[in-house]
Amino acid sequence: MRRMISKATTPRVHGLDTLRALAIVLVVLHHYVLFVSGDNTFGWVGEIGWVGVDLFFALSGYLIGNQIFAAMRSPQGFSLGHFYGRRLLRTLPNFYAVLALYFLSSWFRVDKPLPPLWKFITFTQNINLEPGTAFSHAWSLCIEEQFYLLLPAAALLIGALRGGARWGWAAIAATLAAGMAVRGVQWQDLVHGPLAQHNYFKFIYYSSFCRFDELVAGVALALLKNFHGGAWRRLTAHGNLALGAGTAVCAFAFAMFLDDRYGFAITVFGYPLLALGFGLLIVAALGERSLLRAVRVPGAGSLALWSYAIYLTHKQVCILAARPLAGWGYGPESPLAIGVLLLLSVLSGWGLYKLVETPFMTLRDRYLPSNLRTAPTRAGSGPADLTPGV
C-alpha cells in the first residue's frame, strides 16, 4: 500500500483552492442578481452563477470520497463514528448560528416566511421547498448532509462485498441513470403550464434525487484514485489536457443552460454534463504540471477557507445592506454599491469563520483528528486532507 501523507505535512493544493473560490464567487454574483439588483448586473456570469453550487457538489464528492476510501484502505481502518463527528463539528455550528438569526429576527429575514424548524434541523428543508422562502439557499447544504449520511455507510457495505470496486462503479452508474430518469419523469409530469418554473425548482432543482450528479462524479474520481492507482496516475499526468477538456465541456453546458435552462433535454442531460466538466477541472487541479494546479491565484486560498461561512451569510447581508445604500442614492447597479455589498459578503463570512467555525474546528482537530478507527502509529500514515474547510 502506498504511503499516505499526514495532514500536518500535506501541501496546499492551489488548484482546489481556486475551484472552491470560483464556486463561491459564482454563487454570490448569482444571488446578487436574483435578490438584490434584479437586473443583468454581471452579464452571463451572474445568470449562470448558480452552477457554483454544482461545483461545490463535485468538490465535496471528491474530497469526502477520498477521505473515506483512503481511511478504508489504511491499516487503522475507517471509523464511521469519527467521520460523522467530524462532519457535525464542521457543518452544524455555522449553520445553527445563522439559522438562529433567521428564526429569532423577523428583521433579519425581511419578514419572509420560513419552513418549519424541524426541516432545517433534520436537513430535509430542500424536499418540496417552496421558492421564495427565507434561507432558501440552505437547500444545497441539506443535499450535502444527506449525501454525507449515506455515502460512508454505502461505502462500507459495498467494501464488504467481493469485488467491491466493481460494485462501487455499478452503484455510481445506477445513481446517475436514476437521476436522469427521475428528472425526466418529473419534467414530463410537472414542468408545464403557468406553474412550470415554480415546479421546476420545487420538484427538480431542489430535489435530492435529481441533484446527486456532481456529488457522484466527485466520488467516482475518489474511487478511481484509491482503487485504480495506475489509471489515476495516467489521467492526472495530462493535467492541462484535462483543463482544456473540462473548460470546453463546461462552456458547452453553460451555453445550453443559458439557451434553454428549463427545457427537457437540458434538464435530463445537462447536470451529468456539468458533472463531467467539473470532474475534469478537479483532475486538472490535481494533475501533474497543470496550469490550474501550479498557479496560485491571490486571495483564492482565503476565499476557499471562508467559503462555507460566506455561503451561509452573503445573501441576507446583501439584501439588508442594499436598503440604506439605496436610500443614500447608491442603487444596486452602482459600482459603489456593488463593491460595498460584495465586500460585506466576504467580511460577514470571515466573521462567522473566526467567531464560530474556528473554535469548533480546533475542537475537532483536538478530539477527532482523522477518520481513522485508531491513531496512526507514525507520521505519514493517515489519510490526507487535501484542502482546508473540508
- Principal-axes geometry comes out as globular
Q: How many angstroms separate the termini?
A: 25 Å
- Counting DSSP H or I runs of 4 or more residues, the number of helices is 15
Radius of gyration: 21 Å
Number of strands: 0
Mean pLDDT: 92
Residue stretches low in confidence (pLDDT < 50, at least 5 long) are: 1-10, 378-390
Q: What percent strand? A: under 5%
Largest sheet entry: none
Q: Can you tell me the number of structural domains?
A: 1
Structural class: mainly alpha
Estimated helix fraction: over 70%
Spell out the helices and strands N to C: HHHHHHHHHHHHHHH
Describe the structure.
The model is unreliable at 1-10 and 378-390 (pLDDT under 50). The chain has one domain (38-315, 357-367). By secondary structure, it is mainly alpha-helical. The protein contains 15 helices and no strands. 43% of the residues are buried.
Report a brief summary of the structure.
This protein is an all-alpha fold and 390 residues long. It is built from 15 helices and no strands.
For this entry, give a set of tags.
single chain, 0% strand, 15 helices, 390 residues, disordered N terminus, mainly alpha, globular
Sequence-ordered SSE layout with sheet pairings:
Blueprint: H1 14-37, H2 43-48, H3 51-72, H4 80-104, H5 117-121, H6 139-159, H7 164-190, H8 196-205, H9 213-227, H10 229-236, H11 239-260, H12 264-286, H13 291-294, H14 300-327, H15 335-367
Helix pairs in contact: 1-3, 1-12, 1-14, 3-6, 3-9, 3-12, 4-6, 4-15, 7-8, 7-9, 7-12, 9-10, 9-12, 11-12, 14-15
